[in-house]
Design brief:
The complex is a heterodimer of chains A (624) and B (188). Chain A is built from 29 helices and 4 strands. Chain A is mostly helical and 624 residues long. The N terminus of chain B is likely disordered. Classes of the chains: A mainly alpha (624), B alpha+beta (188).
């Protein structure tokens, strides 16, 4: 063994190298505060390792990026762990970068003769930021897509060459395949190679000047890197890895819905470590100065001051200035980050948008698992899905009058601006038509029979027509029959009537139906007779209804303006109703208040809206 | 690890230094192996998990391929295309060619061969003039019943399970087999 090692040493000189590497003198001995540089190197090594294996499964194109990441995350062996480590290690790197920087400034390690190494460190910092930025886009999900768009748009305001630079980064005038191939080439090729090169120089120059120790340690006995400092470094790295694993297991790497250029994403935010810059740019004063000022000149000036710190440090109070400047920067960034988080936390519409994006991510995953992904990509799964598109269509076409469980379908409360005491104020826009959150369910039907006024209460905001509706014949019928409906002897009969109507909708998700109740309900519908008394008039006297299972007709209705209840709230009924609610078989031109959508919506939109409202979409065991 | 010469000003006992060294190596190994092993596990995914190659077969794995009447009565082999929904990692490509087979009808009994050469995976062709299957790559040759006629292929053509239904439809259980070995072993 020894002979072999001697042979090797004779040819490589590895013993001198090992000796050099491990016996670095540390005046005053090993200390925990020296670990940060090592933890950064370790995390970078983790990124290289996990990055290589992710690379082996990742496919950079707009039709395969999200899809391959989905596959890594949900299908491949330990893929979730691999991606989770890479994801959280990237964030750990930003934190460690900050700590390393603080340690260097406080220890005064930027001063002569270590200026060059300080600058090398700043270059490394830029490379790491570049890696974060390019990596964030690669999953091609809504979150990464819109966050990165902000960054490339900032590049676009660079004086003189902005648009050209932006197009070079994007690989074209807009985001597309080449944005991904370019970002990937930077992320997995150029930037890591640069990082390795500069890290080599950084460590080489570091070793040349040795560790910066405090004055009191200079006179203490000299320790060596091996083994005490190595052990501390290793323990610190273990702590970092444990934190990364903790977040991976606890939260996991997120994957929101596939990027969709056609869909506004109101929850667009950068990753948390850039949140301070985002908030800074939102100040009106900063905004007025122009984007290039806030996004380029000020950060550039700050980096400039940092780069000049070795010179500033020569002055009498220079070191104190540098430390104060660094702490002020950190405090400012912390304050802005907290401010951004607080504002977002209080913004219900932002929260709703985040929830929608997270939901789309889950839904796309669920659909991909069930149906596999077509060649048109995972986005097309969402585009064809009623559960995703329905609420959006509701928001677009219905929410100006209706609500859905109190919101606009997407969890947001519609707001409008008003002038009050010379100030503009945001107030809730009042609904002018019924809340359709439970449309067609047993609850909905029961409410119409027992609490008509409450069901259609928003119509009181709809002006004269709304008042007419609230004082109309049906409202009168409900009032007249309130007593007989409320009688406890009739409770079961009312339930049966509802059961019968629900059974006619053709909506399977409302089933199974109680056949005895359906039969009893049918009789009540026809005759209006109850165990205790009777309705003032039978349903069938006014509302025509053809049974779903055969052609038996329970009356033809009282003519135009008395809505037919054949398949009421079912798919077919709802479609025809939305197309033209003023049709004689619905409200009739005289009473109708709702616009006709036959010409406003495409058939596909109508289909998706209706399928969502009646609950006809794929459900995994987990959905609802 | 080469033991370092203890510095004279190092007051640590050698025993403590040794323990610190061992602990460093153990922890260092652990933190490097964790991400590395995770990556390797993911990389080994192809051999760790069974994959669906296509969807659309019946419950026993058979695909409808031809009508009995499509096959010549004299036993001449005819090549047929198998279509199904092809599964490629995350994608499903609808109604794709997932393979081709040779079918022969002898006395109303059908036999089926995978037309992939068991030597190194090129597609064999039926040569009417020689009444045999020939591989264009390395000249493997097979009789009409699939037996090799030279020493080039390690085994005969791979026969496939078939069934015929009452409508006169021929169904094939399509499988790929490992090339280059003597035994007929399905690729999982």
């Amino acid at each position: 063994m020894n002979t072999l090692l001697n042979w090797l040493d004779h040819r490589t000189g590895y013993r001198t190298l090992m000796h050099e590497a491990l016996n670095e003198p540390i005046p005053g001995g090993a200390k925990w505060k020296y670990v940060w540089g090592s933890t950064l190197t370790f995390v970078f090594a983790v990124q290289v390792m996990t990055g290589f294996f992710l690379w082996a499964a990742y496919s950079p194109s707009t039709l395969t990026a999200w899809e391959s990441v989905y596959f890594i995350q949900n299908e491949m062996t330990l893929g979730w762990l691999l991606r989770g480590i890479h994801h959280y290690a990237a964030q750990a790197m930003m934190v460690l970068l900050g700590l390393h920087f603080m340690q260097i400034i406080i220890a005064g390690a930027y001063r002569a003769p270590r200026e060059v190494n300080f600058w090398l460190g700043l270059i490394l910092m830029q490379i790491v930021l570049g890696l974060s930025l390019t990596g964030y886009l690669l999953p091609w999900d809504q979150k990464g897509y819109y966050a990165t768009k902000v960054a490339t748009n900032i590049v676009g305001v660079t004086p003189l060459v902005g648009p050209q630079l932006q197009q070079l980064a994007q690989g074209g005038p807009t985001y597309g395949h080449h944005t991904l191939t370019r970002f990937f080439a930077l992320h997995a090729g150029v930037l890591p190679a640069l990082l390795v090169a500069f890290l080599g120089l950084h460590i080489y120059v570091f070793r040349r000047h040795g560790i910066t120790v405090s004055k009191s340690d200079e006179t203490k006995p000299i320790g060596t890197f091996w083994p005490d400092q190595v052990l501390m470094d290793a323990v610190a790295c273990l702590g970092v890895l444990a934190t990364i694993l903790f977040f991976t297991v606890w939260k996991g790497a997120e994957l929101t819905g596939p990027a969709d250029a056609s869909e506004a994403y109101s929850a667009a935010r950068p990753e948390w470590y850039f949140l301070f810059l985002f908030r800074f740019l939102k100040f009106e004063e900063v905004d007025k100065l122009g984007l290039e000022f806030g996004a380029l000149y000020i950060p550039g000036a700050i980096m400039g001051v940092i780069a000049l710190m070795p010179f500033i440090g020569h002055w009498k109070l220079g070191h104190r200035f540098n430390v104060a400047f660094t702490i002020a920067l950190l405090a400012g960034a912390t304050f802005l980050t907290a401010l951004a988080l607080k504002e977002d936390g209080a913004d219900a519409n932002y929260q709703a948008a985040v929830k929608a994006a997270v939901f789309e991510g889950h839904r796309a995953t669920e659909l991909a698992k069930e149906f596999d992904i077509p060649e048109s990509g995972a986005l097309s799964l969402l585009k064809e899905d009623a559960l995703v598109q329905g609420p959006k269509l509701f928001k677009r076409y219905c929410a100006s009058c209706h609500r859905y469980d109190g919101h606009n379908g997407m969890g947001q409360i519609p707001m409008k601006e008003i002038e009050e005491d010379g100030k503009t104020k945001q107030i809730e826009e009042l609904a002018t038509a019924a809340d359709l959150g439970h449309f067609g369910s047993r609850v909905w039907l029961t409410n119409i029979l027992t609490d008509y006024d409450k069901t259609f209460a928003p119509l009181k905001n709809a002006g004269e027509g709304g008042q007419r509706f609230l004082n109309g014949e049906m409202a009168g019928w409900v009032k007249d029959n309130a007593d007989v409906v409320k009688k406890s002897e009739n409770e079961q009969a009312v339930k049966s009537l509802v059961e019968f109507l629900v059974s006619q909708t053709g909506r399977t998700e409302l089933g199974p139906f109680d056949e005895t109740m359906v039969a009893a309900g049918k009789e009540i519908y026809k005759t209006g007779k109850l165990p205790e008394g009777a309705f003032s008039s039978a349903c069938a006297d006014c509302h025509g209804l053809k049974l779903a299972d055969n052609a038996e007709s329970l009356g033809d209705g009282a003519g135009p303006g008395y809505p037919t209840l054949t398949g009421y709230t079912g798919k077919g009924w709802l479609k025809e109703f939305i197309r033209n609610p003023a049709h004689d078989s619905f409200y009739g031109p005289e009473h109708n208040l709702m616009p006709a959508f036959a010409a406003k919506m495409t058939d596909k939109e109508l289909e998706q809206l209706v399928n969502w409202m009646v609950g006809d979409y794929f459900r995994s065991k987990k959905t609802h | 690890m080469e033991p370092s010469t203890p510095s004279p000003d190092n007051s640590k006992t050698p025993r403590r230094g040794f323990l610190a060294g061992v602990a460093s190596i153990v922890i260092g190994g652990l933190i490097v192996l964790t991400p590395l092993a995770t990556g390797i596990a993911c990389f080994l995914d192809p051999v760790l998990r069974r994959k669906t190659k296509f969807k659309g077969a019946d419950t026993d794995g058979f695909l409808s391929v031809a009508k009995l009447t499509d096959l010549p009565d004299d036993g001449t082999p005819l090549r047929f295309v198998l279509r199904a929904d092809k599964i490629d990692a995350w994608n499903k490509f609808k109604n794709q060619t997932i393979g081709t087979v040779y079918l022969r009808k002898i006395d109303n009994q059908v036999i089926a061969f995978n037309d992939t050469c068991p030597h190194l995976g090129c597609k064999v062709d039926y040569q009417e003039s020689h009444k045999s299957f020939l591989c264009p790559c390395h000249a493997s040759a097979f009789e009409l019943d699939g037996k090799p006629t030279n020493k080039i292929p390690p085994r005969g053509l791979d026969s496939l399970e078939i069934k015929t239904d009452t409508n006169g439809e021929v169904w094939v259980k399509y499988q790929d087999f490992q090339c280059g070995i003597k035994k007929q072993e399905a690729v999982q």
